[in-house]
Specification:
- The structure is a homodimer.
- Chain A has about 160 residues and is of the alpha+beta class.
- Chain A has two domains: about 1-90, Arc Repressor Mutant, subunit A (Orthogonal Bundle), CATH 1.10.10.10; about 90-160, Dna Ligase, domain 1, CATH 3.30.1490.190.
- Chain A contains six helices and six strands, in the order H-H-E-H-H-E-E-E-E-H-E-H.
- Chain A has helices at about 1-15, 20-30, 40-50, 55-70, 115-125, 140-160, and strands at about 40, 70-75, 80-85, 95-100, 105-110, 130-140.
- In chain A, the strands form two sheets. In chain A, strands 1-3-2 form a three-stranded antiparallel sheet.
- The longest helix of chain A is centred in the last third of the chain and has 19 residues, at about 140-160.
- The structure holds a DNA duplex (30 and 30 nucleotides).
Chain lengths: ~160, ~160
DNA sequence: TTTTAAATTATAATAAATATCAAGATAGAA
DNA sequence: TTCTATCTTGATATTTATTATAATTTAAAA
């Protein structure tokens, strides 16, 4: 983690930005919640715990900056809030997401899976792909099992 | 088009909603701009041309309703505005989009292309897919050509 | 140290979307 | 037909996410 932070520091420097304490605190929160999908507000509240003087605008600006530098990716799962997702180190592409329509949980898929599709798109539509966003909506394993149990219960009740 | 409107009317009725004049006017605008990606505001302004008394809230409510009934799909290309996209009749899945990072143009891909990927995801992650969102960001053919021309120009200038 | 630019905070402003509520339209019952 | 209950609408207020502004602070450079 310290390692990753150092690299991010260098990335900032090479674009002549500084890693200010506020920015460092923000990046640390992102690193500590790498698998979550935090909104700007979420990040703000978490950073505040360790750095109470920080302003909301600074968090927004930092997230904007990190997005520009491709250190984080901004995602939107349709609830009207932007969420920020740390890009996996060295990852060529943004990863995919499974959003459960029952419980709202979000799972990440790091595997690319789109290589063939992208070849087709570049070839057939003459479109030069630089990035992608792929989200599947559906029912997660957990909720599928819940549903099954519920069904059993229902059929028992019905047969009484 | 009248045909499509009739079907939408039936869809509404079967969920016990009415196709009020306001709703009809809104649906007509969507049908007339099937390949655009209109925001609620856009739709509102277009509906107003033919039905000036309509209120913004009604348009929002109608779009919400149509989204629920899967007649339109809400998409978000990252500019903070929801856009509404008429679902192609009989289409099993939501179609994909190519968003140009140069000119902002949006092109639709009706081909599925994800069949194999979805099989893998359902199998490997035990996730029961009900819908998806796939957007490619990149450079459209038009802008690629512009870039080439620009390069030529630049090299000419440089050689002077 | 002085100078300069970058970055920060607090707060105001903007913009999209939603909630509220009184009034209007509509369909079925009497 | 008239009455009544329900649905729908329009105007407006409110909420919420995000961005802009302006004064201040910080940090590096001269």
């Amino acid at each position: 983690m310290e390692n990753r932070l150092e690299k991010i520091k260098k990335q900032l420097h090479s674009s002549s930005y500084k890693l200010t304490p506020q920015r460092e605190a923000t990046v640390r929160v992102l690193l500590e919640h790498a698998s979550d999908h935090l909104s700007a507000e979420d990040v703000y509240l978490l950073v505040k715990e360790k750095y109470p003087e920080i302003g909301l605008a600074t968090v927004y600006r930092t997230l904007e900056l990190l997005t520009e530098l491709k250190i984080v990716d901004r995602v939107n799962f349709g609830d009207g809030v932007s969420r920020y997702d740390l890009r996996v180190e060295g990852a060529q592409h943004f990863h995919h997401h499974l959003v459960c329509i029952e419980c709202g949980s979000v799972k990440e898929i790091q595997e690319d899976l789109l290589e063939d599709v992208e070849l087709i798109v570049e070839e057939r539509w003459k479109f030069q792909i630089t990035d992608h966003r792929l989200t599947f909506h559906g029912i997660c394993q957990n909720c599928q099992e819940k549903r099954k149990k519920q069904k059993k219960k229902n059929s028992k009740t019905a047969s009484l």
